[in-house]
Amino acid sequence: MCLAVPGKIVSISGDEPLEKTGKVSFGGILKEVSLAYVPEAKVGDYAVVHVGFALSIVDEEAALQTLADLEAIAQLSSV
Question: What pTM was estimated for this model as a whole?
Answer without folding.
Answer: 0.86
